[in-house]
Amino acid sequence: MMQRHAIGILETNSWGVATAGLDQMLKSANVRTIKYDLVGGIWIAVYVAGDINAVSQAVNSALSSYTDSGGVQIRGTVIPNPTPEFLELYDL
User: Fold this and answer.
1) Which domains does the chain have, with CATH numbers?
2) Mind spelling out the 3-state secondary structure of 18-82?
């Protein structure tokens, strides 16, 4: 298992926004995609990993580049230094 100093999670209710958000995260910082998940209903979560500063920059960049297109929701979270139990629970 690769070492992950931080996990970034981008959640949205739009495939297009999830795709554009992931693209923005990968372009803006040195992070790697590690998973995407359907998290109930219409919610999609995209997970990236890297060092804490890069993951924070990536998530913030994706959130700030989003322009509201009506009805689409987006949120982001950074988990610094995730525990082994967290990684196992989310199959990361």
Assistant:
1) 6-78 (3.30.70.1710)
2) HHHHHHHHHHHCCCEEEEEEECCCCCEEEEEEECHHHHHHHHHHHHHHCCCCCCCCEEEEEEECC
pLDDT of residue 4: 57
pLDDT in tens, 64-90: 988 776 788 999 999 999 999 998 998
Helix 15-28 to helix 52-65 angle (10° resolution) is 130
Say what the pTM is. Answer: 0.88
Distance (Å, rounded) from C-alpha 70 to C-alpha 34? Answer: 29
Question: In the predicted model, is pLDDT for residue 7 greater than 80?
Answer: yes
Q: Can you tell me which residue has the tokens 């993951």?
A: 55
Measured distance CA(38)–CA(28) in Å, rounded: 24
